[in-house]
Write a structure and sequence with these properties.
151 residues, alpha/beta, nine-stranded mixed sheet, 9 strands
């Protein structure tokens, strides 16, 4: 593993997950297609807006909704990018980065395994919540004029 892109294992506001600057590394780790879309997490709307354009009518909602992921049009990529602002204890860790790609700490389409998660992580970020599987975030796709619930 490259030391320049370590894989962090941390409990997010929803479930235990891997975080890394390289989304292809996370997809390979989980056994997924390397080009599969993945969630980009940040700790603030300001950081998120350096990656994506949030339509004005949804900015307040994106900033305030907890445990929610939004798929929006990317500024740098041709396709869309799923982004999330994380609040609470996990956001303190994210504040050290512009943004990290995030995915659940399990193999593709399988349940959470602490053994798998611990063997794959370069660094483990623990707090009083420990590491556990929990309900995943809601996902909405937003455009300039409409919003659609995906999960």
């Amino acid at each position: 593993m490259k030391a320049s892109n370590p894989i962090f294992l941390a409990q997010s506001d929803t479930t235990a997950g891997f975080l890394c600057k390289d989304y292809k590394k996370l997809n390979a780790l989980k056994g997924r297609n390397l080009t599969q879309n993945i969630i980009l997490t940040t700790d603030s709307l300001k950081k998120m807006q350096s990656f994506v354009r949030i339509p004005k009518k949804y900015k307040k909602e994106v900033r305030r909704l907890k445990q929610t992921t939004f798929i929006v049009r990317s500024k740098t990529l041709i396709n869309s990018l799923a982004t999330r602002i994380v609040v609470g204890q996990h956001s303190e860790f994210l504040s050290f980065f512009n943004g990290l790609y995030s995915t659940s700490a399990n193999r593709h389409k399988q349940r959470f395994s602490l053994e798998f998660a611990l063997t794959c992580a370069t660094f483990i970020v623990l707090d009083k919540r420990g590491l556990k599987e929990d309900k995943s975030s809601s996902i909405y796709k937003i455009g300039s004029y409409n919003k659609k619930r995906i999960r």
